[in-house]
Amino acid sequence: QLQLVESGGGLVQPGGSLRLSCAASGGTLDYYGIRWFRQAPGKEREEVSCISHDTYSTSYTDSVKGRFTVSRDNTVNKVYLQMNSVKPEDAAVYYCAANWDSYTDFCAVVIGEGRYNAWGQGTQVTVSS
Predict the structure, then answer these.
(1) Is it the case that residue 1 has pLDDT exceeding 90?
(2) 99 and 110 in contact (C-beta within 8 Å)?
(3) Which helix (H) or strand (E) holds 109?
(4) How far is CA 30 from the centre of its chain?
């Protein structure tokens, strides 16, 4: 069974950068689309970014467009979220989640927490000067 582990979180200053990683074990990510979610204290979990198994489909929530970049390296079974120009409102626990990708446009179709059946434990991102 596919297992996901996030890493790379930590303390970052406003305007700084951080790269999160989502590593898979128990299987290959080659045929899985990955979506990043985040949850801030007292708020609902929200979708942040998505990448299909073949990278043809990607998406970003409006608040991170132009600042975050999702990528993947299937040779090392990892997906990344590069966070630049970080803002205080980006502080949250970040999760990666996977679903089998058999879609033409994975990120446009596989939307919502309930569509993902493999989750990591999350990594904390704290934004503070």
Answers:
(1) no
(2) yes
(3) helix 106-109
(4) 16
